[in-house]
């Protein structure tokens, strides 16, 4: 696992931080892993957006 994966999964890195780190590190990474990390970030962003929408609906 790369540093982005480890820190992101431990919630030590926000989605914005993970995206920034991925932009900086992607040249040295395998294309398949870049895709995997991108999908992991997108999944969390969708979950956060869904939760935010749900919370907004309750207000």
Observed structural traits:
59 residues; mainly alpha; 3 helices
Report on the structure:
With 59 residues, this protein is mostly helical. Helix content is 78%, strand content 0%. It has helices at residues 3-9, 15-25, 31-58. The longest helix is centred in the last third of the chain and has 28 residues, at 31-58.
Concise structural overview:
This protein is mostly helical. Helix content is 78%, strand content 0%. It is elongated, with a radius of gyration of 13 Å.
How many DSSP E strands?
0
**Helix/strand class:** mainly alpha
Mean pLDDT: 93
Pattern of helices and strands: HHH
> Uncertain regions: pLDDT < 50 for 5+ in a row?
none
Q: Name the beta content range.
A: under 5%
Q: What share of the residues lie within helices?
A: over 70%
The biggest beta sheet, please?
Answer: none
Please outline the helices and strands.
Blueprint: H1 3-9, H2 15-25, H3 31-58
Helix pairs in contact: 2-3
